[in-house]
Specification:
By secondary structure, the chain is α/β, with parallel strands linked by helices. Strands 3, 4, 5, 6, 7, 14 and 15 form a seven-stranded mixed sheet that branches. β8, α4 and β9 form a beta-alpha-beta unit. α3 crosses α4 and α3 packs across α10. The longest helix has 21 residues. The chain starts with a strand and ends with a strand.
Length: 327
């Protein structure tokens, strides 16, 4: 089978190589999937660079989430049937940018009927992250104001839709007019182009000076620092990632005097510490998808051969919505 592999860490376009490798076989508790669609995520770029919190041994195949079709079951696996369409995180070092992949059966969920393969692949990590960030960590309530950074990106676009579904007023921050249009189309009530507007001033004006109740921040750097200037009393800042490349150093004295919370979110840990909650979130996301309240914004569907370029473009921040590879 064909699979992209990283033999040496570096920028995705140079580090990823399309190889011919043996088709894997599932071991006990595992499932062999034919990959129908693989979402492209910022962590894929970090994996290529050797900067992710998980560093798989070289060579490895990137691609952290997929929609697949069950081909074969390993020993002891029950409850799954061949030809079933499913979604799952990948099991590194054998990621999703390949024609076939083996994954643990415990992490495999039915793909929502309401979504096609590309949309289903893009639902899993981004929307699970949004669900846990907004509901489990920040306890977002109807009527609150939610500020979403990178609102037209993969993680941010999920938060916009989930925030609207929860009854919040959503303010989305983007970079450029194309991304502003995408955020509006996703349902953001107010969209701020950070290239030409000050989101702090916009948030204060929109909330009559109260500030945002919840900030969803996958960017870090200046986005985080300036968010502390427009966070509400008893507000919650959810730290999701650092696509800016800069990890901020929070001023805990500032959090004290303004009475806000800084909440870290590493969604992958829930698969180990609370898998029942992950399944509950999946069921809720399927319900929202069936009702039309969430639908991943897949801007491009790409052939397997375009995967390295797609990961590089996501790393460079030049994409809108989600890119999905269709092996």
């Amino acid at each position: 089978m064909k699979a992209w592999r990283v033999h040496e860490n570096g920028e995705p376009r140079e580090a990823m190589r399309l190889d011919e490798v043996p088709t894997p076989e599932p071991g006990p508790g595992e499932v062999l999937l034919r990959v129908r669609a693989a979402g492209v995520n910022f962590p894929d770029a970090m994996l290529c660079r050797g900067q992710y919190q998980i560093r798989p041994p070289l060579p490895f195949t990137p691609g952290v989430e997929m929609c697949g079709e069950v081909v074969a079951l390993g020993e002891g696996v029950t409850g799954l049937e061949p030809a079933t369409r499913v979604i799952t995180p990948a099991a590194l070092p054998a990621g999703a940018f390949a024609e076939y992949a083996v994954v643990p059966a415990a992490g495999v969920f039915p793909a929502p009927d309401a979504l096609d393969d590309a949309e289903a692949a893009a639902l899993h990590i981004g929307y699970q992250t949004g669900w846990f960030g907004l509901h489990r960590r920040a306890a977002l309530r109807p009527g609150e104001t939610l500020l979403v950074h990178a609102a037209a990106g993969g993680v941010g676009s999920a938060a916009v839709q989930l925030g609207k579904a929860a009854g919040a007023t959503v303010i989305g921050v983007v970079g450029g007019p194309d991304k502003a249009k995408a955020a509006r189309d996703l349902g953001a009530d107010i969209v701020v182009d950070r290239h030409s507007e000050d989101f702090v001033a916009v948030v204060k004006e929109a909330t009559s000076g109260r500030g945002a109740n919840v900030v969803y921040d996958p960017v870090g750097g200046d986005a985080y620092t300036r968010s502390t200037k427009c966070i509400a009393f008893e507000g919650r800042i959810v730290v999701v990632g650092f696509t800016s490349g800069t990890i901020p150093a929070p001023g805990l004295n500032h959090a004290l005097v303004k009475n806000y919370a800084i909440l870290g979110l590493h969604w992958g840990l829930y698969n180990t510490h609370d898998p029942v909650a992950v399944r509950h979130a999946h069921d809720e996301l399927c319900r929202l998808a069936a009702a039309g309240d969430v639908k991943p914004f897949v801007s491009e569907r790409l052939a397997l051969g375009a995967a390295a370029d797609a990961v590089q473009r996501v790393a460079d921040g030049t994409t809108v919505g989600r890119l999905v590879v269709l092996p």
